[in-house]
Write a structure and sequence with these properties.
alpha/beta, Zincin-like, two-stranded antiparallel sheet, 13% strand, Peptidase_M4/M1_CTD_sf
Length: 311
């Protein structure tokens, strides 16, 4: 029996993990558990194999992640989401991928031995769900898709009560320099390095959030802009040019911050003064920790970014 079991596991995993595309047909043959969330339904399927945790614990993790995303966007980004969990070796989440070409779908390879603590601290599920809130674009603009997911994921989790503001500002101060342009950089649109795609995109989002809040007396921010894209029908099941995405977001907040920043940072390298930015936001490193200075010029904006949305 043992060789047969090993063969079945290998075949099952290859069917659900093969290639770079979502296995929609294989997914649709599996039993589903439907989770109702504000604005949509998540159809959860488990590829063959066992997890250490019960399915109800895994469903609770999905519900927690969806709550953070709906908190940020005001609703779940798509009416229907296929979510495939594939058991793999180990005790951690092994990344994730989001598609929209045959309806919104996410595949998460999840370590069989993952614990409740691993799921409680996870950021991958929220990151992938954030992708469903942005139209698909050519690969050269992946920095916007990944940057939004990197930036919005922790903010959404703070707003939902799953992280503290101190944790995410500490992480931004530590990791944001990875997104600064290096030698040979040709702007966000033309530089496909990991650092620029993820943290360069996140830096663009932080700067946009701050500039929108400055221009609107801190009444509106990037959250309102991206809610505007979603309200206009711009989710991951749609193909939009980046110009339409940014113009729609700008229209939602009444200022052209995103388009202007893209014109500046897309075609050529721009190196913000992060040390001054942290100081203006009222952030100061103290060893491995940080301190907040609520008298700093942009302290009110820093607080507003992670505060629950007022509307």
């Amino acid at each position: 029996m043992l060789p047969s079991a090993i063969s079945f596991r290998a075949d099952a995993q290859s069917e659900y993990m093969r290639g770079a595309r979502m296995p929609y047909d294989a997914f649709d043959r599996l039993p589903k558990t439907d989770l109702e969330v504000p604005g949509g339904t998540i159809h959860v399927a488990f590829a063959p194999g066992d997890f250490m945790l019960s399915r109800e614990k895994l469903l609770d993790w999905i519900r927690m992640s969806a709550r953070a995303v709906t908190t940020y966007y005001g609703r779940f980004p798509v009416n229907s989401l296929r979510l495939l969990l594939v058991p793999v070796d180990g005790g951690r989440i092994r990344g994730g991928t989001t598609w929209g070409y045959r309806g919104a779908a996410i595949r998460i390879p999840l370590g069989r031995d993952s614990s409740e603590d691993v799921l409680r601290r996870d950021w991958v599920m929220v990151h992938e769900m954030v992708h469903t809130a942005l139209p698909d674009m050519p690969d050269r603009y992946a920095w916007l898709s990944e940057g939004l997911a990197v930036y919005i994921e922790p903010v959404a989790r703070v707003q939902a009560g799953d992280l503290t503001a101190r944790e995410i500002w500490q992480a931004m101060m530590r990791d944001m320099p990875k997104g600064l342009p290096q030698a040979g950089d040709q702007g966000l649109d033309n530089t496909g390095t990991w650092g620029r795609k993820y943290w360069g995109g996140a830096m663009f989002c932080l700067l946009a959030d701050i500039e929108i809040r400055k221009a609107t007396d801190n009444r509106l921010g990037l959250q309102d802009a991206m809610r505007g894209v979603l309200a206009a029908g711009g989710n991951h099941e749609q193909d939009w040019p980046i110009e339409r995405i940014l113009a729609t977001a700008d229209k939602a907040v009444g200022v052209d911050v995103l388009t202007r920043l893209h014109n500046e940072m897309g075609p050529k390298p721009v190196t913000p003064d992060l040390a001054s930015l942290w100081r203006d936001l009222g952030l100061k490193r103290t060893g491995e920790d940080i301190e907040f200075d609520d008298t700093a010029p942009l302290a009110a904006i820093r607080k507003a970014i992670t505060a629950p949305h007022a509307r």
